[in-house]
Amino acid sequence: MKSLSVLVAVAALVAKVSAHYTWPQLIVGGTNTSSWQYVRETNNWQDLNPMTDVSSVDVRCYTSEESGTASTMSVAAGSTVGFTVDGNPSNLYHPGVLNVYMAQAPAGTDVASWDGSGTVWFKIYQISAVTDGGTSITFPATGLTQVTFPIPSETPSGQYLIRIEHIALHVASSFGGAQFYIACAQVEVTNGGTGTPGPLVEFPGEYTGNEPGILIDIYYPIPTSYTQPGPPVWPASGASSPPPVSTTSNAHTTAPTTSTATKVTSTSTASAPSGTGAAQYAQCGGQGFAGPSTCVSPYTCTVVNQYYSQCL
Ligand SMILES: *[C@@H]1O[C@H](CO)[C@@H](O)[C@H](O)[C@H]1NC(C)=O
Ligand SMILES: [Cu+2]
């Protein structure tokens, strides 16, 4: 009995120390593709270790493969794609936040031989931390075994890198302590829109390591707020998925059917079974949240607490 509990304690300790992960598979059409088939094989594909030096070129795609063996997957603008988590264990074990960026390969350049350099990256998705003024901080990305998100329908057709990063913050209270788990997939966006993605940022360059969301003690004192690293998500919330004006929404007066971004988010949401809305596990409501309040089919916007509703 005693030795068992010691074993469990030791196992927990080991798991805590060695719990790292990678993003080997691109998810397209709900299907997991093969490992490192469309995702560039990262330098940590075997040891699973994070990278921590945000000034290193590794912060871009965490790979030395600038013209590697990955193939390029065709994906429609507006469709949902994602990445699987593989590791020990195979989930986003550490508390942290998540960002997804895209960058279009220059005209005439095959994305498969493009290194992603330049001020070319825009953010399309994030899962931040949830704070409530100092009594708790939670990380909704924790425990995910896969992360899915829509390619904005406004994205112009063309070849892109999609870069996912989980920033683990469990030892982030000293400079260089935050752990970056990064990978890039190669896609060709079809049926694209006419948007102008931005703001554009550069990797390395976007992070110094001193950001309040990267150099942070998440334990004590409990942060009263959290600032998500990186630029805002494109397109600006509200513009991306205007709530479909239901024709059945009867004869009110001529309600101010706002044509654009001014949308007040309510926490209770009828999950319209449409192709638009927030992705599985994404935030879809909560106090102060101004993003899409619907979820992509078949997920439902579920109230987790006052501050956070999630597509489940
Ligand atoms: C895809 O991979 C994820 C992460 O490993 C796993 O949780 C999920 O069950 C897989 N999906 C399918 C359809 O195999
Ligand atoms: Cu780890």
Write the layout of secondary structure elements.
Elements: H1 2-18, E1 21-22, E2 26-28, E3 31-32, H2 58-61, E4 73-76, E5 80-84, E6 86-87, E7 96-104, E8 121-127, E9 130-131, E10 137-138, E11 146-150, E12 158-168, E13 179-190, E14 283-285, E15 301-305, E16 308-311
Parallel strand pairs: 4-13
Antiparallel strand pairs: 1-6, 2-3, 2-5, 5-11, 7-8, 7-12, 9-10, 12-13, 14-16, 15-16
The structure holds 2-acetamido-2-deoxy-beta-D-glucopyranose and copper (II) ion (CU).
2-acetamido-2-deoxy-beta-D-glucopyranose binds next to loops.
EC number: 1.14.99.56
Main location: secreted
GO biological process, one term: cellulose catabolic process
Write up this protein.
The protein has two helices and 16 strands. It has helices at residues 2-18, 58-61, and strands at residues 21-22, 26-28, 31-32, 73-76, 80-84, 86-87, 96-104, 121-127, 130-131, 137-138, 146-150, 158-168, 179-190, 283-285, 301-305, 308-311. The strands form five sheets. It has a five-stranded mixed sheet with strand order 4-13-12-7-8. A four-stranded antiparallel sheet has the order 3-2-5-11, with no helix packed on it. The two termini are 39 Å apart. Mean pLDDT is 83; it is low at 1-17 and 238-274. Bound molecules: 2-acetamido-2-deoxy-beta-D-glucopyranose and copper (II) ion. Residues 19-20, 94 line the site of copper (II) ion.
